[in-house]
Write a structure and sequence with these properties.
binds heme C; 233 residues; Cytochrome Bc1 Complex, Chain D, domain 2; 2 domains; single chain
């Protein structure tokens, strides 16, 4: 049977359909390019702050303290920023900025960060490879192991790994990874919850736990987590 062309009435429709398809493709391409552009701008914004800071706004380069690797510094208790989720990092920077998490150094750094800076920095650090001790640290004292793994029911202290269990952290944006975090950093946080200098934990869960711990227990449990290897949640 000879092929018959479409009745004349359908031809403009055909053309219109072809135009719609082309227009959709072009729009999709432009959107993809715009997204790629935005992503590139976000990475550039983060890298600039990480490597150079913005001194006019009192923002010191993050690498000065958290190092190129993001691992921070054990002796100075500059936190290990690797192995943390994007939303946790963004929350902490926002909390330093508002002052509900007090720290002389980080409050100055965060004071003039814009929301866009915070989003870019959180994206940048959450994508670094998780790294940190299993280290030459001594094995943690027994009281640290017990507290971390079993808690103390008599004093209503839950085991830390109920929540800070790296394997269970995937997809949980509110509980930070503390395995392979620096011991001094961990003990400083527990002390900050005891004094109220850090006051940003959902439901006061961490401050109520920290207030029950003795100084020896804080040191022991900090050594326990610092001794673990840092893994991505
Ligand atoms: C002069 C040193 C210094 C500089 C520069 C610095 N930090 Fe910090 N950072 C610290 C210290 C000290 C702490 C721990 C503060 C505390 O105990 O709350 C910290 C903690 C943090 C935390 C909290 C980590 C956690 O696990 O909750 C984040 C996030 C952070 N810094 C991000 C940044 C970013 C992003 C920059 C760059 C814009 C930066 N810091 C620049 C010293 C510094
Ligand atoms: C019921 C869940 C839960 C339990 C149990 C728990 N934590 Fe936490 N922990 C949290 C949450 C949630 C946060 C994040 C608070 C915030 O948003 O700042 C946190 C934060 C922390 C931080 C700060 C980490 C950082 O990067 O700054 C440390 C240190 C910590 N916990 C130690 C412990 C220790 C030690 C124990 C056991 C004695 C423990 N936690 C038990 C939920 C818990």
């Amino acid at each position: 049977m000879p092929r018959r062309s479409l009745p004349i009435i359908f031809r403009p429709l055909h053309r219109a359909a072809a135009f719609t398809v082309i227009a959709t493709c072009v729009t999709a391409l432009l959107t993809a390019t715009a997204i790629a552009d935005d992503a590139a701008k976000e990475i550039a914004r983060a890298r600039d702050l990480v490597e150079h800071g913005r001194l006019a706004d009192g923002i010191v380069a993050c690498v000065a303290c958290h190092r190129d690797s993001g691992q921070g510094d054990a002796e100075s208790a500059f936190g290990n920023l690797t192995g943390l989720t994007e939303s946790y990092i963004a929350k902490q920077l926002t909390d330093y900025r508002s002052g509900i998490r007090e720290n002389r150094v980080m409050q100055v750094v965060a004071a003039k960060l814009t929301d866009a800076d915070i989003a870019a920095l959180a994206g940048y650090y959450s994508k670094l490879e998780a790294s940190g001790a299993k280290s030459p640290l001594p094995e943690p004292p027994a009281i640290g192991v017990t507290l971390a793994e079993q808690g103390d029911a008599a004093r209503e202290i839950p085991s830390c790994v109920t929540c800070h269990n790296v394997a269970a952290l995937a997809g949980n944006d509110t509980i930070p990874n503390i395995a392979g975090q620096h011991a001094l950093y961990i003990s400083r946080q527990l002390e900050a919850w005891q004094t109220g200098a850090r006051n940003n934990d959902p439901g006061s869960i961490m401050s109520s736990i920290a207030k029950k711990l003795t100084a020896d227990e804080i040191n022991a449990v900090a050594l326990y987590f610092a001794w673990q290897k840092r893994k991505a949640p």
